[in-house]
Specification:
Layout lengths: L3 H7 L9 H6 L5 H13 L1 H12 L8 E6 L2 E6 L2 E2 L1 H10 L7 E6 L5 E5 H17 L8 E4 L4 H13 L3 E3 L6 H11 L3 E5 L2 E3 L2 E3 L1 H9 L9 E5 L13 E3 H7 L9 E2 L3 E7 L7 E6 H15 L7 E4 L6 H13 L3 E5 L10 H9 L3 E4 L1 H10 L2 H4 L8 E5 L5 H11 L6 E4 L33 E4 L12 E5 L9 E2 L3 H9 L11 E9 L5 E6 L3 E4 L2 E4 H9 L4 E11 L3 E10 L7 H14 L8 E4 L13 H8 L15 H9 L1
Helix pairs in contact: 3-4, 5-6, 5-12, 6-7, 6-10, 8-9, 11-12, 14-16
Bound molecules: ligand 6R9.
Length: 656
Amino acid sequence: MSHPTIESILQENRLFHPPADFVAKARINSLEAYNALYERAKADPAAFWGELAQQELEWFQPWDQVLDWQPPNAKWFVNGKINITYNCLDRHLKTWRKNKAALIWEGEPGDSRTLTYAQLHREVCQFANVLKQLGVKKGDRVGIYMPMIPEAAIAMLACARLGAPHSVVFGGFSAEALRDRLIDAQAKLVVTADGGWRKDAIVPLKDQVDKALAHQAVPSVENVLVVQRTQQPVTMVPGRDHWWHDLQKGASADCPAEPMDSEDLLFILYTSGSTGKPKGVVHTTAGYNLYTHITTQWVFDLQDTDVYWCTADVGWITGHSYIVYGPLSNGATTLMYEGAPRASNPGCFWDVIEKYGVTIFYTAPTAIRAFIKMGEHLPRARNLSSLRLLGTVGEPINPEAWMWYYRVIGGERCPIVDTWWQTETGGHMITSLPGAIPMKPGSATKPLPGILADVVDLEGNPVGLNEGGYLVIRHPWPGMMRTVYGDPDRFRRTYWEHIPPRDGQYFYFAGDGARKDEDGYFWVMGRVDDVINVSGHRLGTMEIESALVSHPAVAEAAVVGKPDEIKGEEIVAFVILEGSATPSDALQQELKQHVVNEIGALARPAEIRFTDALPKTRSGKIMRRLLRSLAAGQEVSGDTSTLEDRSVLDKLRQGA
Ligand code: 6R9
C-alpha cells in the first residue's frame, strides 16, 4: 500500500457532525434513525424492500414475490408489471409537479432550456413514437452516443417507455470503442448529434458514428437519428440517417408506457474490467427503479424545493442513476450542464450554481482537485449560498480535497456525502446519510439500509479492525446488476467466485480494497484488480494493452497506473517494440495517438516507456506491482523472488 492518498487517508480521524439546521429538516435525522432502519432491513430484507416498493412506486400489476435468489441470479419483484418512465413522468402529471421544472439544461455556449414535467413527458412520448415508426420494438437495443443535451435524457426515457433497452456510450469514446459496443449489444438504431461542445471545441459525434458503422461493420444498425446541436456540416446517408427535428415535429404525443415485467432489461452499460473486452452490465426495470429512487431520496435528502445538479456525463452510470432516473422518479428538478471548466471560463460551474440557485451539488474528487488548483478566488467571486448539500463519487477523496470542498464550496454549512458505488451496483451503497451520519473526511462512512457490506479475506473471513481486505456485499439488493450481457459465465466468475461461496453465503466481489474502523466506517482504498481509475473513469489495463499491441510496431505492452495529483492516476505504458521498429519520440507520440483512436482521449497514456523485456513470474504473468513502483519512481520493494529474470528489473530501472 504505497499509494500516497491511501497513506494520508489512514491517518485521518477528524469527525464532522451534520450541521444542526440541516438535521432539523432532514428526512433521516439521527444516527439512531439510521441504525433502526438498518436493523429492520437486515432482519427482513424482503419485507423492507417490499414495503418501499409499494410506498414509493406505482405499479401496473403487483409482484408475487419480493426476491427470488438463486445465486448468483436474483429476481426482484417477481411478476410485477411497471414502467420506469411512468414513475419518472406520468405520475407527476397528476400532481402540482406537472408544471415544475423537471430538467434545467445549460449549454456550453450559454444557451439554455427548461423542460417542465409536462413538457418532458410530451417530448419523450413523441420520440418514443419516432422510434416505433423506425421499427424499434420492445426488446430491441438502441445505441445512444450523445453530448450532454436534453435529447440524451429524452432518448433514454423514450427507449424505456417502449421497453427497448438503451446502451449509452460516452461521447468521449472513439469510433472503434463505439463500434465494439454496438456490435456486442446488436443495436438496431443509434441516436446521436451532429456534434457537442467540449471546452470550446466541437466533438464530431456524427462523424464518429459514420466511422463506427462504415463498411457495414455493425449490420444490426438500420437507422441513425441525428440531433442538430452544433450545426456543423455532416454527411447524412440516405435511407439510414434522419434528423431528429424532422421526425419529432410530426410525431404524436400519445404513447402510453409499455407495461414491463419487473425483470425486463432496462439498459446495458459497458464498463471496464480486468480483461480486454468491456463488460455489458445489465440492469433491469423494477429493482433499478426502486433502488435509484430511494437512494436519491435518502442520500441527497431530497426536498421539493431543491435544484439538484450532478456534473457527471449521462454516458456513465452516475448520469443514468443520478441525473436521469433517480431524480425524475422523485419529481425533482435535475440540472444538466453541457460544459466543463475550461481556460476561457474556469469558473463556469460556480456561475451555474449562482444562476440557478443550485442547492445540491454532486461531483467527482478529480474535479475538486482541479478546482483547488484553479484557485479559491473563482468560487469566492460567486454567490454559492444556495448550496445546502455536497456530494462526491468516482474514487476515494483525499482528506485535503474534502476539507477544501467543505470549507470553500460548502461554507462549512453543507454536509458532504461521499458515495461509494459502481456501475454494477446501480446506485449508492456506502455513503453517509447527510442528516444522520457524522462524516470523516476520506471515508464513505456506512452502508445504506439493506446493504450488507463487509471487508473479508480471500476465504471470506472478516478481517480485523483497520486491516485491509476485500470489499464484499453479503446479500442481494434491488439495484444490483443481473448479468453481463451475453455472458452469464463471466458474470459468475467476475463477481461471485473470487471468494468461494460457503454455507449458502455468496459474496459479491466489488474489486475494491477497503478497511473498516472501530466505528464501523468503511475506508475504500481503490481497485485490487487490473483497473485504473483516471479522473474517476474506469479503464482496464488489458484494454489499453490490447490497443497498443494492435499497432504494427508493438510486440508487447504492460500498462499500469501512476499516482497523479489531479487525475488520481495516470497511465504509464511499458512497451516492447517489434524487431524492426526503433524507439523515438515520434513513435511515442504515435502510440499515444493510436490508443486515443482505439479507445478515446480518456485513455491517452501520459508516458510510454520503451523496454526490451518486462518483469514476469515463472508462469509468465507480468508483475505489475513492480512496474507500478517503477512508474511512480519508487524503489521496488517487497518480494521479487518469483521474478523469472532479475536482470530485467535493473534494465528497466536504468531506462527510467
Ligand atoms: C459510480 C462509479 C466504480 C469504482 C469503484 C471504486 C471507485 C467510486 C468511490 C470510489 C472510493 C468512492 N469509486 N466511488 N472509491 N470512494 N466514493 O464511479 O462507478 O465508474 O463503475 O466505478 O470507482 O473503485 O469500484 P464506476
